[in-house]
Specification:
The chain has 106 residues and is of the alpha+beta class. It is built from 2 helices and 4 strands, in the order βαββαβ.
Length: 106
């Protein structure tokens, strides 16, 4: 059985893009301060881009965070451009250091 029986065109299918950001927050002295710094970054990402974003890892560490961003799009190039802007946004934040980033498209 076809997944989308009404559409035989593979180029019309949506793609799911996933971005992982590993962050260091050197100024955080508590989990409350860490959440303050992260909420600013996550809020700016949500305001500017049509993505879903959440802190998903290192939640018990004061100065480390794992943030994941997901986007569904029919244009496979759009998430790449948006994710580049999100990485630049994370890099430009003086309170947060971007340790690593990885993106993939499904």
């Amino acid at each position: 059985m076809k997944r989308f029986p009404h559409d035989n065109s593979p180029e019309k299918r949506s793609s799911i893009a996933h971005l992982i950001l590993v962050l260091h927050i050197p100024g955080a002295r508590s989990l409350k301060e860490k959440r303050h710094f992260l909420s600013g970054l996550i809020g700016r990402i949500r305001e500017r881009y049509p993505v879903s974003v959440a802190e998903t890892g290192y939640q018990d560490l004061w100065q480390r965070a794992l943030v994941e961003v997901v986007m569904v799009s029919s244009d496979t190039r759009l998430p790449v451009r948006i994710f580049e802007k999100i990485v630049d946004l994370a890099r430009s934040n003086p309170e947060i250091e971007l340790l690593d980033s990885h993106q993939e498209t499904l």
